[in-house]
Specification:
It is built from six helices and twelve strands. The protein is an alpha/beta fold. The chain has a nine-stranded mixed beta sheet, with helices on one face. Helix 3 packs antiparallel against helix 4 and helix 5 runs parallel beside helix 6. The relative contact order is 0.06.
Amino acid sequence: MNATARHQPPASGRKPVPRGASRTVTREPLSARVPKAKVGGFFKKLGWLILMVALGYGVYEGAQRLLPYADRPITKINVQGDLSYISQQAVQQRIAPYVAASFFTIDLAAMRSELEKMPWIAHAEVRRVWPDQVVIRLEEQLPVARWGDEALLNNQGEAFTPRELANYEHLPQLFGPQRAQQQVMQQYQVLSQMLRPMGFSIARLELRERGSWFLTTGAGSAGPGIELLLGRDHLVEKMRRFIAIYDKTLKEQITNIARVDLRYSNGLAVGWREQAAPPTDKPAVAKN
């Protein structure tokens, strides 16, 4: 038989290397596959926390030690603003109880509230200026009219009551319900602008409880004062009607007119002044 064996045993003692799926894989140790705890990061964060606490405590202690040297008594009060109705002395006297405090302990809010209680002060701003100064900026009331017999109105229609009203009798006098201060002031401003080109000014404007408006002009270049009865509504339209008729008809006779009733829908009624009786000639008396 001439058969030849193709498979020959290996010449040495080495085992053949497995192929395919039968090949074994060397595994890593368990200690290498389990992640190590981040112990170093924890101690780092803890160190930063301790450092921040220590730094904060140091700043607090330093501030407590330096505060007696930095918190100085108030030595200067600087009052700013255009003051026409109140004096610097009156302001200083008003805030005297607060000035005894130190720079950091002075109560600025209470000082501002106390200043704004003064009748002539509309608004107050108070601030500290290092190292020992307080700056006060004041805005005074701007009186535009009298409100009734005991108060004044500013340009915002807000009433305030100064001690003396005798010096403000030249201002127009406005009347109305207490809740209607701003409404009366706004109506006064509108009607004043309409009457001013005619040479009239408003001496008195009244809003009565039932809603009717009564206006009295002041004596001036246009003549003596007259009373305008305006009614409850459409005041601007009625005033335009009065102006148109005044220029055409009433202007030449204004000195004889006492009142004009504008409560009609399409016209007006004129009330004439009473003519003064001419003086009688008295006989001369001879003296011995």
